[in-house]
């Protein structure tokens, strides 16, 4: 294909990535994150061979069937691609790519921030200070949980789960994990494997999710009940993994000490009951939101486009 292949940039990306897209390709640049219908229409109008998309372009089987015949690659700008039916897209002969690796550290950093903030009651302390403080915090009041030395359970020991375990070791934590299969010893680094998540949960003083959606609701009322009383729950994976009613009940009842949440079942119109709970630390799905990481994610998507347009294999195919 021509070096000036026609590309649709269907989401707002960082300035550096947009500059590259304009320089290297004949690029139609959207001024906002396009919807599914807008993206399909724009791809057809521009005769695009490549679509660079984000989560607002939801390619289910019906939408995949409507993709223009000239589209050769759909380059997703995140590692997660649960907003599309990748198999349906690939069945059209279209290559699908994502962006693994480049967001591992930032996601683990934010997950560990949520862990610390939940354990140490950061939301409550911050709220107190913003109201002017003005009250004494007694010796036995406003007490958090010491995260150092606790037992951390990780569900999903892929790249991000392993990066989370590395950070936990720096705090002297015992690391347990549940995964589809056991890791080789050099990747485990002493973490203890549980074939069953249910068997692991009673041992987890802190639990952190690091797996993709698609397998249904993982954290049910029964699963939360298996955690020891006073446990902390962290989720930077996907909101669809969690029964949010059950989580709210566990937080209100005191069965869970606290939670740190970056993802929700509905975004951005999340369940605002979480905001009413003092023992929840909330962030708006921003685990990868650093300049360096968002640049790298968009650039990897464009690297995949460049490879396919040059007749080479995609770098990170789904």
TrEMBL record:
The D-isomer specific 2-hydroxyacid dehydrogenase catalytic domain, residue ranges: 7-318
Source taxon at top rank: Bacteria
Record-linked Pfam families: 2-Hacid_dh, 2-Hacid_dh_C
Alphabetic keyword roster: NAD, Oxidoreductase
Domain annotation D-isomer specific 2-hydroxyacid dehydrogenase NAD-binding: ranges: 112-287
GO cellular component: cytosol
GO molecular function annotation: glyoxylate reductase (NADPH) activity; hydroxypyruvate reductase [NAD(P)H] activity; NAD binding
InterPro entries in the cross-refs: D-isomer_2-hydroxyacid_DH, D-isomer_2_OHA_DH_cat_dom, D-isomer_DH_CS, D-isomer_DH_CS1, D-isomer_DH_NAD-bd, NAD(P)-bd_dom_sf
Family named by the database record: Belongs to the D-isomer specific 2-hydroxyacid dehydrogenase family.
PANTHER family: 2-HYDROXYACID DEHYDROGENASE-RELATED, GLYOXYLATE REDUCTASE 1
Protein name per Swiss-Prot or TrEMBL: D-glycerate dehydrogenase
């Amino acid at each position: 294909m021509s070096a000036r292949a026609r590309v649709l940039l269907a989401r707002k990306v960082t300035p550096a990535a947009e500059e590259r897209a304009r320089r290297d390709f004949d690029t139609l640049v959207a001024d906002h994150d396009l919807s599914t219908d807008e993206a399909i229409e724009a791809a057809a109008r521009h005769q695009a061979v490549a679509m660079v998309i984000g989560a607002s372009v939801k390619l289910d089987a019906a939408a995949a069937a409507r993709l223009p015949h000239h589209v050769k690659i759909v380059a997703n700008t995140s590692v997660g691609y649960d907003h599309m039916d990748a198999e349906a897209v690939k069945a059209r002969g279209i290559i699908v790519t994502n962006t693994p690796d480049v967001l591992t550290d930032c996601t683990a950093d934010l997950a560990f921030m949520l862990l610390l903030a939940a354990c140490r009651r950061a939301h409550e302390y911050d709220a107190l200070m913003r109201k002017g403080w003005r009250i004494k915090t007694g010796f036995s009041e406003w007490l958090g949980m010491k995260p150092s030395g606790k037992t951390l359970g990780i569900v999903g020991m892929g790249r991000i789960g392993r990066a989370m375990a590395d950070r936990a070791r720096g705090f002297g934590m015992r690391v347990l994990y549940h995964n589809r299969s056991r890791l080789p010893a050099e990747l485990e680094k002493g973490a203890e494997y549980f074939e069953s998540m249910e068997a692991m949960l009673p041992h987890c003083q802190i639990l952190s999710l690091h797996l993709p959606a698609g397998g249904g609701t993982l954290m049910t009322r029964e699963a939360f009940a298996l955690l020891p009383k006073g446990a902390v729950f962290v989720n930077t994976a996907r909101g669809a993994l969690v029964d949010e009613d059950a989580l709210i009940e566990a937080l209100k009842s005191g069965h869970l000490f606290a939670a740190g949440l970056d993802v929700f079942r509905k975004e951005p119109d999340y369940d605002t009951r979480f905001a009413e709970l003092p023992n929840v630390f909330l962030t708006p799905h921003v685990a990868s939101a650093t300049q360096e990481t968002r640049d790298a994610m968009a650039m990897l998507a464009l690297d995949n486009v460049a490879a396919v347009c040059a007749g080479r294999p995609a770098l990170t195919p789904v």
